[in-house]
Amino acid sequence: MTEELTKPSSRRRRAVIAVAGLGVLIYLAAAVLTDADRLQAALLSLGWSGTLLVLGASLLNYGLRFHRWSLYVSKLGHSVPRGRHFLYYLCGFAFTVSPGKAGEAVRSLYLREHGVPYADSIAALFVERVLDLMAIALLASLFVLQDHSYWPVLAGALGVTVALVVFIGRPAVSALLDRLAAARSGRIAKALGGIANLLRASRSLLSPRLLSTGLVLGLVAWGVEGIGLYWICEGLGLSTSLVTATGIYGIAVLAGGAAFFMPGGIGGMEVAMPALLVAQGVPVTTAVIAMLLCRLATLWFAVVLGLIAATVLETRKSLPRLITP
Questions:
Q1: pTM for the structure as a whole
Q2: Distance between CA atoms of 179 and 174, rounded to whole angstroms?
Q3: Is there a domain that residue 265 lies in?
């Protein structure tokens, strides 16, 4: 990559990092202004041990998902120093507040420096999203089994997941795109060829073994976040079962995913989670506080870690390789 191309790219990344940091500050301010006294009381109720448990659940989530991500990248034939690769993965979280979390594809820019084609890294991100959707839908079923009124949400999520897996798994689709690309020229041909390569790389990550491994890792990773919500409810003195809390978390994440064009699903989850808790008999104010604590410990904790990783990567270009290939 030439210096002329690198500098604008670096400036754009730093601008988005600054926007992400501003988003954290705005959300924290909104959380405090919502009900500062109750939020402080909630944190005191959780205590240091409860807070560390909830944050630890989030860290386990990130670690398991990184393990899956690095497995995908290696299966596509690429070797990246693990320490630096972990920073790249965390850096993507700084851009979670982009619409549809599309900004997490920033990892591709860093991995390109290690010879990883965009088609491969985007394929890993795409498959990761598909399996996350499947895992979260399965977790949401824990709540749907108790309240059948939410079955359309679950059916929709599972339907989209199955449709995507079937679409990716058909070699004829990428072959058709190759033929269309050969019949055209310029940017259209390049775009069609890129999509075909993306589908081929994605299909190689959906073998039965990789599919089952990725799904299990996703279930455990997102399941511990549901356990984190349960611990928050326990800290607030709410009598919510572990199964119910995990199911509520799954439904709320699906609601956030439905708000596709909202940064990080902001709005959908903020509405769904309190509503689901209120339906379980939780007072409205307490339900909102529980949601705020959950979002701070999951979304915004991830964004903060991503900002730290992005800052390290952008300010220390000579960062040594922590683990050699």
A1: 0.83
A2: 9
A3: yes
Per-residue pLDDT tens over the stretch 76-88: 999 999 999 999 9
- Asked whether residue 196 is domain-assigned, the answer is no
Other beta carbons within 10 angstroms of residue 183's beta carbon come to 10
Residue 199 lies in a domain: no
Q: What pLDDT was estimated at residue 35?
A: 57
- H-only helix segments in 205-241: 208-235
- Other CB atoms closer than 10 Å to residue 167's CB: what's the count? 13
Is residue 66 domain-resident? yes
- How many structural domains does the chain have? 1
Q: Which residues of 54-74 are buried (b: 16+ CB within 10 A; e: fewer)?
A: beebbebbbebbbebbbbbbe
Degrees to nearest 5, angle at CA 111 with 25 and 62? 50
Instruction: Give the phi and the psi of residue 81 in degrees, each rounded to 5.
Output: -50, 125
Give the C-alpha separation, 323 to 81, whole Å.
5
Range of the structural domain that residue 243 is part of: 3-115+208-315
